[in-house]
Amino acid sequence: xxxxxxxxxxxxxxxxxxxxxxxxxxxxxxxxxxxxxxxxxxxxxxxxxxxxxxxxxxxxxxxxxxxxxxxxxxxxxxxxxxxxxxxxxxxxxxxxxxxxxxxxxxxxxxxxxxxxxxxxxxxxxxxxxxxxxxxxxxxxxxxxxxxxxxxxxxxxxxxxxxxxxxxxxxxxxxxxxxxxxxxxxxxxxxxxxxxxxxxxxxxxxxxxxxxxxxxxxxxxxxxxxxxxxxxxxxxxxxxxxxxxxxxxxxxxxxxxxxxxxxxxxxxxxxxxxxxxxxxxxxxxxxxxxxxxxxxxxxxxxxxxxxxxxxxxxxxxxxxxxxxxxxxxxxxxxxxxxxxxxxxxxxxxxxxxxxxxxxxxxxxxxx
Length: 366
Prior knowledge:
alpha/beta, Rossmann fold, Elongation Factor Tu (Ef-tu), domain 3, 11-stranded mixed β-sheet, 7-stranded mixed β-barrel, 8 helices
C-alpha cells in the first residue's frame, strides 16, 4: 500500500487570489481561504508528506500573517527530503481554540483538493497551536496522523484566556487522543502535559520529551527536526519514542555583535509581525563579556530611545507589558514585551542595530 505523508502548517484563506513563486527546489503558493491567509511550500518532487504548522497566539491588532521562513532552518531540510510545508494565519489573531480547529481542517481539505490527499499528515503546533493540535488529535481519525505539540498551552480557551489556573478549559479535554501525540515542553512547563498523559485513556498515544532549559517553546531547529522524525517513525513504523530529556547544544562560537565601551551592538535578525518580538544577533558569550547577567535588568537602546529589560527565561517572568529578554535555544537574544509589541515601542526593523548595556548597579527582579 502506498502512503502519502504530510505535515501541515496551519493556514486559512478564502481560496481566491492565490499566487505561486519559484524558490530553488520548491514552489511557494500564497493566498486567501475563508478569511485566513495561507502559505504552502511545495517541493519539486513531493514525497506525499505534508507538515502543517499551527502557530501560537498573536496580538489581536497585529496584521494576519501566514509567512514562515524556510532557508537555513529545519523546514529547508524537510523540503529537501520532499516534504510539503504549509501554514495558516487562522481567520483572526488572539487566543482561541474552536476557530483554529475549524481553520486547520478547512486548510487541510483545500490542500487535498489542490495537490491530492496526503497519505500521512502531521501537525506541529506551538503554544496555543499545541492546544489546537491536541484538540484535533481527540477527534475521530481521518485527516491527521500525528501531532507534535511544542509548549502546548492546554489551558487556552475561546474566551481569550491562557492562564495556568484555567483548569475548566483543561478538564474539557476528552483525554482520548486517537492519533500519536508527542509533547515537547521546556523543563518548567511539563506539569499539565504530564497530567494530560496520566489521564489519557490510551497511554500508547502520548509521549513526552523535555527540553532541558527553561522557557516557553524554546527549542532549536535541530531538536524540532529530531522530534518530527521521531513522530514520523512512531506513526509509520510503530516505534513509539520513549519519554526523555532532549538537549542539542548549538552555542555559537561567534556572532555579528561588536563590543565598544562596555556596550554590545547587535543587529536585529528577525522581527515577528504577529507579536512584535525581536531577535538580536548576540550570544550568551556576548552578554557575559558585557557583564549582563541572568535575573537582572539591563538597558536596550535604539535611535535615542532606551528601555530597561529583564534578562530571564520566559515571557511570564515579567508582568504584562513589561520588557523581557532571554537567550533562545539557537543562542540568539530574544527581545520582547509580555503581551505587547517591542517592535512598535522601539520603532525598529529587521537589520537595524540596537545596543545593550548593563546598569551600573543592576537590580534583580523584585
